[in-house]
Write a sequence for this structure.
């Protein structure tokens, strides 16, 4: 495997960029934040747990203390999102970029989902991305400022995926937002793009998507990927840095997959889980709800 930890970018390529990452307290958002800081950016992290955000900020800003700020925000609430964006504008200045990274997801048979389960997952992804993009975008337009929006999607937007239907629907809606706003907002100098990474292991999300040894029949396993490995946070960060830099001012409306060839080689990500029994699914639900309960106990919003 090539060494992707060596940056190809100048360390000041993101200097002057003020970047918001929603869901930045954990997982991919947290991992990418450190790389943005190392390349000169000021980063703002949003999440629902103050202590987790503070820990993430300390880690991400290790190379440049003071370069990461945090706010507890539930992205599903348009009023809270607008107030938090207003606070950034007032205290630090206008954002230059928004990364719609916050997501909720778990694997479950669709027939077993309650209305609230559907709402929780789909609205975090769809409404959360819209609320954040809208709150920043209307300020950029009003003030004549350029901006960049980058949403974290999945390859399910092209293939669908069994057992993660609310997520697949929410992500596909954000893909539609990406294409639509790219056209509507290009004349304001606002670029709207998205990424569709394949599996990249991170703590909590990985637990939610692989809560049983039997999900080895699913497609989050390396042997289902033509490259025979999962992706890395460094590889994702390299693409994020490029897309948020001034190097690609003409690139808009695209969702770029980075999945080791996975989507071209096989069925939707979790299609293999059709072999699981009802008991397997009951065990999966119990394990993922335990992980959720532990996370919920730390929430401050
Ligand atoms: C069935 C479930 C369930 C499960 C929760 N619910 N887990 N139903 N099976 N395993 C139901 C609950 O019973 C409840 O409905 C409703 O969902 C809301 O659950 P809450 O726990 O109250 O919601 P909340 O506290 O907001 O938690 C949301 C969460 C949690 C989805 C459960 O996992 C979360 O916040 N995750 C955030 C991080 C995350 O998952 N990121 C993953 C992104 S990965 P009722 O009716 O009972 O009240 C991704 C792409 C991966 O998106 C790409 C891989 C290739």
């Amino acid at each position: 495997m090539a060494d992707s930890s060596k940056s190809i970018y100048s360390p000041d390529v993101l200097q002057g960029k003020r970047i918001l990452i929603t869901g930045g307290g954990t997982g991919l958002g947290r991992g990418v934040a450190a790389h943005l800081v190392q390349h000169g950016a000021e980063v703002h992290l949003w999440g629902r747990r103050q202590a987790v955000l503070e820990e993430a900020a300390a880690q991400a800003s290790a190379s440049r203390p003071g370069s990461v700020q945090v706010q507890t925000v539930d992205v599903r609430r348009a009023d809270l999102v607008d107030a938090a964006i207003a606070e950034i504008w007032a205290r630090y200045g206008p954002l230059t970029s928004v990364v719609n990274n916050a997501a909720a997801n778990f694997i479950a048979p669709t027939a077993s989902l309650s209305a609230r389960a559907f709402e929780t997952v789909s609205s975090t992804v769809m409404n959360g991305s819209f609320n954040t993009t809208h709150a920043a975008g209307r300020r950029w337009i009003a003030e004549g400022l350029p901006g960049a929006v980058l949403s974290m999607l999945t390859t399910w937007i092209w293939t669908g995926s069994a057992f993660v239907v609310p997520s697949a629907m929410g992500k596909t809606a954000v893909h539609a937002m990406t294409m639509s706003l790219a056209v509507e907002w290009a004349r304001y100098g606002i670029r709207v793009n998205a990424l569709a990474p394949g599996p990249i292991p991170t703590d909590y999300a990985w637990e939610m998507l692989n809560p049983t040894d039997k999900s080895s029949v699913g497609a989050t396993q390396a042997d289902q990927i033509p490259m025979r490995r999962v992706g890395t946070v460094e590889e994702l960060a390299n693409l994020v840095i490029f897309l948020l830099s001034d190097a690609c001012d003409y690139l808009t409306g695209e969702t770029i997959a980075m999945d080791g060839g996975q989507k071209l080689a096989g069925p939707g990500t979790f299609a293999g889980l059709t072999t699981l029994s009802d008991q397997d699914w009951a065990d999966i639900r119990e394990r993922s709800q335990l992980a959720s309960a532990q996370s919920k106990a730390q929430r401050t919003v």
